[in-house]
Design goal:
The chain is α+β, with helices and mostly antiparallel strands. The chain contains five helices and four strands. The strands form two sheets. A two-stranded parallel sheet has the order 1-2. Strand 1, helix 1 and strand 2 form a beta-alpha-beta unit. The chain is globular and about 35 Å long. It starts with a strand and ends with a strand.
C-alpha cells in the first residue's frame, strides 16, 4: 500500500495541511508516500529537499485521461484561475509523483 497525497509545500493552505498530515502519518506508520503537485509542478523539488527527491511516473490510459478531464471540468473556478500553460500538466498522459 502507498499513501498518495498532495505535496505539503504546494502553496495552497488546504493542500499544504492535508499533505503535512499525510506525510506525518506515513512516516509514523512506515507507509510509502507518493506526493502530487498541483501548484508547484513547475518548481524544482530540490528547492525543498536539497536534491534528495526522486520522481515516479504512472502512465494513464485513455479512460483515465477522460475521467481526469471530466473531474477537472467540475472545478471551473480553479481552472479559470490558471494560465493556459499551467493547465498542461493536467492534460499529460501520465501522473508524476514526488517520492
Amino acid at each position: 500500500m502507498t499513501l498518495i497525497a498532495p505535496f505539503e509545500h504546494d502553496g495552497h493552505p488546504d493542500n499544504d495541511a492535508v499533505g503535512a498530515v499525510c506525510r506525518e502519518s506515513a512516516l509514523a506508520n512506515g507507509v510509502p508516500l507518493a506526493r502530487y503537485l498541483t501548484r508547484t509542478w513547475h518548481t524544482d523539488p530540490s528547492l525543498f529537499f536539497g536534491g534528495e527527491s526522486s520522481w515516479g511516473k504512472f502512465p494513464l490510459d485513455m479512460e483515465a485521461r477522460r475521467a481526469k478531464a471530466h473531474a477537472l471540468q467540475c472545478f471551473g473556478s480553479q481552472s479559470a484561475q490558471r494560465e493556459e500553460a499551467r493547465i498542461d500538466p493536467f492534460q499529460r498522459s501520465f501522473e508524476a509523483f514526488l517520492l
